[in-house]
Write a structure and sequence with these properties.
Mean pLDDT: 86
Keywords: Membrane, Transmembrane, Transmembrane helix
Structural class: mainly alpha
Radius of gyration: 17 Å
Protein name: Membrane protein YczE
Number of domains: 1
Low-confidence stretches: none
InterPro entries: YczE/YyaS-like (IPR038750)
């Protein structure tokens, strides 16, 4: 029983800490104003038009991704993915509020802050995935694309981010060089930090059996 409770504790710890880092990284990229990731740009663009919070629009786009994923896989959409969306969107709203008024003007400063945000997002994503709870809606959609078109993760991610890029353009989201960069750099970084997070998780389970 003790072993099971420890495993659950560490899963929850990695899940929550990872989501907090993920959300903080998103907020940092928004403040950097160098171009957020495609689907985050969709949420920000909708926020600019309709004035609901960014976190609220993250939930709306997440629900859309889940519905599309379920349709592509010919299965009942896994609405449990919204748990991840609700938790993370709350953190995003908090961190955006916390950094309200922060402004970076030189482009080199924007680029530096953007890259810092990307690294934090990658660490957070790699960490929360270790928790192995409800998957992120965008991950669910990406896997659905991979299965539908019988392709690999890299191509599926490009399709996923590409569709988000088009939608972000249509809603006048904050598209920038960073938006294009995110399509190519998130995959390798998340894989790298996810591997290290798994090793840390196993180490903690070994030390505290």
């Amino acid at each position: 029983m003790k072993t099971k409770s420890h495993k659950l504790f560490f899963r929850i710890m990695f899940f929550v800490i990872g989501l907090m880092l993920f959300a903080f990284g998103i907020a940092v990229t928004i403040v950097a104003d160098f171009g957020v990731s495609a689907w985050d740009a969709v949420s920000v663009g909708l926020y600019e038009h309709f004035h609901l919070s960014i976190g609220t629009w993250m939930n709306v786009t997440s629900l859309l991704l889940i519905l599309l994923g379920g349709w592509l896989r010919h299965e009942r959409p896994k609405l449990s993915c919204m748990i991840t969306s609700f938790v993370m969107s709350g953190f995003v709203d908090f961190f955006v509020w916390l950094m309200n008024g922060v402004s970076i003007s030189p482009w080199i400063g924007k680029l530096t802050l953007f890259l810092v945000g990307v690294i934090i997002i990658s660490i957070g994503c790699g960490t929360y995935l270790v928790g192995d709870f409800a998957p992120c809606p965008i991950d669910y959609f990406m896997v659905a694309l991979r299965d539908k078109f019988q392709t690999n993760i890299r191509t599926a991610m490009t399709l996923c981010e590409g569709s988000g890029f088009i939608l972000a353009f249509l809603v006048s989201g904050p598209i920038g060089l960073g938006t294009l960069l995110s399509v190519f750099i998130y995959g390798p970084l998340i894989q790298y930090f996810h591997q290290h997070a798994k090793e840390l998780h196993q180490s903690l389970l070994y030390r505290f059996p």
